[in-house]
Amino acid sequence: MGTHVIKMPDIGEGIAQVELVEWFVKVGDVIAEDQVVADVMTDKATVEIPSPVSGKVLALGGQPGEVMAVGSELIRIEVEGGGNHVDAPQAKPVEAVAAPAPAPVAEPPRSAPQVLASQPASTSTAAPIVPRQASDKPLASPAVRKRALDAGIELRYVHGSGPAGRILHEDLDAFISKPHSSAGQAPSGYARRTDSEQVPVIGLRRKIAQRMQDAKRRVAHFSYVEEIDVTALEALRQQLNQKHGESRGKLTLLPFIVRAMVVALRDFPQINATYDDEAQVITRHGAVHVGIATQGDNGLMVPVLRHAEAGSLWSNAAEIARLANAARNNKASRDELSGSTITLTSLGALGGIASTPVVNTPEVAIVGVNRMVERPVVIDGQIVVRKMMNLSSSFDHRVVDGMDAALFIQAVRGLLEQPACLFVE
Question: Known InterPro entries for this protein (predicted)?
C-alpha cells in the first residue's frame, strides 16, 4: 500500500491562497476516483476539489474556514501501489472537521420526533434509530437546517444519503414520512427551548459579509424609490408567453426590466460605470453586463448576464435562468460571477413595498424590484384597479448625482409603462 497526497491546486488568475469551505469526507472514509472531497473558495467562486485516486482517507490538512496556500497539503489517501508520497513530515490528522458543537445544555437532549399524531403508529413498522453522537454535527445545507428546526427535528437522528452522509431535503421527507421507534414524541413548536448553535462565518457567508461591510464603509449610498404601473407590461408578457412560450420559453418580468435598463442607460452612461476609488478613476462601460442577484442555500451570489445590450428578450431570459440555476447549485464559474457593470436584484413575491439594496462595488448603481400588487389608483379622476410595482434603487453618491439617478429611474419607468417603446429604435 502507498500514500497519495493531494495538494491544494492552482486555481488560476494568480490566486495564491484559498479558503477551505467544507469537507465531504472524514478520516477513515473509503472514497472513489473523481469523488469530490472538499469545497474551497476564491474571491469569486466556490470550487470543488475531486480526488484523482481511489483509497482510504488517512488525514485531512485543514479545518473549514482555514485559509490555505496553493500547493499546501490538502488530504492524504492510502492507495494500492506506491502512491505519490515523497518523504516529508506528515501532516497531523484532523480528527474532526465539522464546526464546534453547541455547548452542553442543562436539559437532556430531546428525542427525535415521530410521525404526526393523526397517523396511527400501528399502521407501519417502526424504523430503528441509530443517532449520531451528540458531538457529531451532521452535514446539511442552511436550508435543510432551517426546515428541520421549523419541524422540530434533530438532524443527528436523520440518515444522510448525500456525499459524506450529507443530509438532503429528500432525507427529511423520508424521516417525516414514517414512525421511528425509541425516538419519543415530536416536541411542540411552543415547547421551552434552551438549545443554541454556533455557526462559523466561513466560505460564501464570509465573502458576503466582507463585501457588504466594505460596500457600506466605502460607498456613499442613497436610495430612490418609484412606483410603476406595469398593467400593460404584464398584459404583453402574458400574451407573448401564450403565443411563444412553448417554442421560445416563458418570460418573467426580469428580461423586460433588463431591456428597459439597457435602453435608459444609453442616455445615462455615468450609471453604467465602475469606480476605482483608490486610483480615483471612473470607467464608463459601453457593454451592459448585468449582475443578477441570486439567493442560494449558501447565500447571495451575483452571476453576470453579459452583453445584455445585444440580447433579445428570450435570449436574455434563457441566460438569466441558466445563470440563476448555476448559482443556486454552486456550479457558476469564476468568469460567470465577475465583471458586472450594474446589478439587478429582486426578491420576487417577497419583494415587499420598498427596500434599500446595497451597491455591488465597484459598480455605482443597483436596481431593486419589489413585489407587484393590484391596488386602486386614480387615473383621469377615476378610481381603477392597476398592477403596481416599486423600483427601489441605490446609487453611489460619489459618482451619481441625485438628479441623474431620478431621471434614470424615470426613464426606466416610462419604458415599462409604455412597453412598446422598448422595441422602438
Answer: 2-oxoA_DH_lipoyl-BS, 2-oxoacid_DH_actylTfrase, 2-oxoacid_DH_E2_comp, Biotin_lipoyl, CAT-like_dom_sf, E3-bd_dom_sf, PSBD, Single_hybrid_motif
Q: Are strands 304-305 and 290-292 parallel, antiparallel or unpaired?
A: antiparallel
pLDDT of amino acid 121: 41
Q: Model confidence over 196-233: pLDDT tens digits?
A: 888 777 777 788 888 888 898 889 999 999 999 999 99
Amino acid at the residue 69: A
Radius of gyration of the chain (CA): 26
Q: Where are the beta strands (DSSP E) in 51-192?
A: 55-60, 67-69, 73-79
**Cell representation of residue 320:** 438569466
Backbone angles phi and psi of 165, in degrees to 5: 80, 15
User: C-alpha distances in angstroms, 194 versus 44, 190, 200, 273?
Assistant: 38, 12, 20, 50
Q: Cα(first)–Cα(last) distance of the chain, in Å? A: 71
What CATH class is the domain 2-79?
Answer: mainly beta
Q: According to the model, what pLDDT value does residue 133 have?
A: 55
Q: Are 257 and 263 in contact (CB under 8 A)?
A: no
Q: Which of 59-63, 241-245, 394-398 has the lowest mean pLDDT?
A: 59-63
Amino acid identity for residue 339 in this structure: G
Every domain of the chain and the residues it spans: 2-79, 142-167, 222-422
* Beta carbons within 10 angstroms of residue 232's beta carbon: 15
Residue 396 and residue 219 in contact, taking contact as beta carbons nearer than 8 Å: yes
Edge-to-edge strands, sheet with 365-379:
221-229, 382-396, 365-379, 342-346, 290-292, 304-305
Peptide bond into 142 cis (omega under 30): no
**Half-sphere exposure of 42 toward its Cβ, with a 13 Å CA cutoff?**
21
Compute how many other C-beta atoms are within 10 angstroms of the C-beta atom of residue 95: 9
Looking at domain 222-422, its CATH superfamily turns out to be Chloramphenicol acetyltransferase-like domain (3.30.559.10)
Q: Give catalytic residue positions.
A: 397, 401
DSSP 137-162: PPPB-HHHHHHHHHHT--GGGSPP-S
Cα–Cα distances (Å) from 183 to 109, 156, 158, in that order, read 11, 12, 11
User: For 357-373, how does the pLDDT look when each residue is reduced to its tens digit (9 = 90+)?
Assistant: 999 999 999 999 999 99
pTM beyond 0.70, yes or no: no
